[in-house]
Amino acid sequence: MTTNGSPTDGRTPEDFETRMARLREEMVQRQLRDRGIRDERVLAAMRKVPRHRFVPPEYVYAAYDDGPLPIGAGQTISQPYIVALMTELLHLQGPERVLEVGTGSGYQTAILAELAAEVYTIELEAELLERARRRLQAMGYTNIFFRHGDGSEGWPEAAPFDAIIVTAAPPEVPPALVGQLGVGGRLVIPVGTWDQDLQLIVRYGPEPTDYTVQSVTPVRFVPLRTRRETP
Length: 231
Ligand code: SAH
Description:
There is one protein chain. The protein is of the alpha/beta class. It is built from six helices and nine strands; from the N terminus they run H-H-E-E-H-E-H-E-H-E-E-H-E-E-E. Helix 5 links the parallel strand 4 (118-123) and strand 5 (144-148). The longest helix is centred in the first third of the chain and has 20 residues, at 13-32. It starts with 12 loop residues before the first helix and ends in a 12-residue tail after the last strand. Bound molecules: S-adenosyl-L-homocysteine (SAH).
């Protein structure tokens, strides 16, 4: 039998998916569990969502590697550990409404859609948004709402949110996002320009200043841009 040199080299599609599932299982064990991710619902979502369908074809075999990958338009899909860590910090139980800023590939969106009731996601790059929308709809997700625009304004019509996650870094926390957190709500966001800090903001009361800020770990994300800065 000859092979045609395609990425699957004579494997059947089932072999390919089986291999991807094995890589995913290893990712969950070595990159997530061994490094302290404990939330079983988060681990189950990371085991379920096919990350290889969110990366460009040339990176399919690197989809479960321990790092970020390019997704086009100068943007990246975050490292699996960072996706899991940020998701765990949101403490999702199931009934929540979640805002995501920076749809990108839609991978983090899918993880959130597995764990919460509704996900509202905003992306500045129209092309990335449309690709993510098509991909997530093809996968059968019906609890995701998409918006093209500047996520630092939040999504006022859908607020308040139980959780907000931002996957691009602003120099400072956008006040609109804190304002759209419900009481008890949690916001996870990288803050800073070059050296960034992953922050967890918890809103404990109804007053605008009723929130705590906790620094979690140093991170490096692409910048959160305003419309004006769009290339
Ligand atoms: N969560 C994504 C990570 C994408 S990287 C994933 O899993 O693939 C960050 C994304 O934020 C990029 O797609 C970038 O275009 C987008 N972005 C940057 N500034 C933004 C803004 N002001 N509003 C919305 N999205 C923004």
